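We modelled the chain as a single entity of 366 amino acids. Its sequence is:
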Amino acid sequence: MPLLPDVAETLATLEAIGSQPTVPFHEHAAIHAIRERIEALGIETRNDRYGQLYARLARGDAKRALVLIAHTDHPGFVVSDAHGQEGRVRVSGGLRPGCFGRPVGVQVHDDGGSAPVRAVVDDYVDDPDIPNNSPGHARIRADAPLRVGQWAVLDLPGLAVRGDELRMRAADDLAGCALIVLALGLLRAERRPFDVHAAFTRAEETGLFGARLIAEDGLIPRDAYVVSLEASSARFAPAGEGIVVRTGDLHNTFSNDAERYLRVAQEELALAGIPTQRRLLQGGTCEASAFVRLGWTATGVALPNVNYHNDPEDGTFAPEIVHLGDVLGGVALLAQAAVAAGADASETWWPSARRVPDEVRRALES
């Protein structure tokens, strides 16, 4: 198995998935693009009753299965009131109110796949809807008549490549979805045992709802270890210095048992000179928290994300930025972790520390 994915294939996958418009509860285009990429690999997919997408790739008699999970939504807007070409939109997900310092360009979509309509959002009003993680609402003025139930995304590029920088409207979490697809592609050439399930969830930004449904309903194997894929704020881990093994998030510490396989993979990547990081990322709460709190064994991996939630902290909105090197290393980390789980492997230092040597016992007893 090659250690790193092909760069051209990586960029093509990021483009195919990252260019799709998506907001909570309206993720259909993103899920369709993910399904197409997975099925092009010769891997079957299925949906649950909630419209979430699953796939599985396995080889041999793996000792432990992993579930790689990422969400298909990103913060945006939903039209809540419409009168001709004007109306109001409710912010859906965690866009920071401070970014509405000037009119915001958006693209209006519907679930029928109609051509997008350009619009401008302004006159933001703080009016928190905490259960749905919505900070407020704003006026929208569009180039065509609006309808209640339409939704809008920021008018930003799906993917623009600037050297190692990948500028995306929704790196969180369409880049995470792409990492899983690319890891499945890399694992097709692997001959050692592994068992990888992939799950692509909905409505994460409004309350981790998709992940919670999977955990509550037992929609994945109960003895598998869950690995949440995110693009998390680079305030807590520098971009360009490697994919992050995430020990926890704002609210929870994750499972050491599940993280062990990621640490084994880190060792393999270090031997090849591929950088990784291991950090506590407190920029938000990810889907691993939903699983941990509901009794599952779970851990996380994250791409350091500059301008997290499109916030450059200057009163405007901007593309999120992840680094190509971090993406390539992240795909390699996932593939190596799957093999480590298949073998139930431990880090190289652990066997020597597992049992206290007899001579030490005798010395302490004397």
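As a brief sanity check on the tokenised model: The longest strand covers residues 117-129. The first helix runs from residue 7 to 18.
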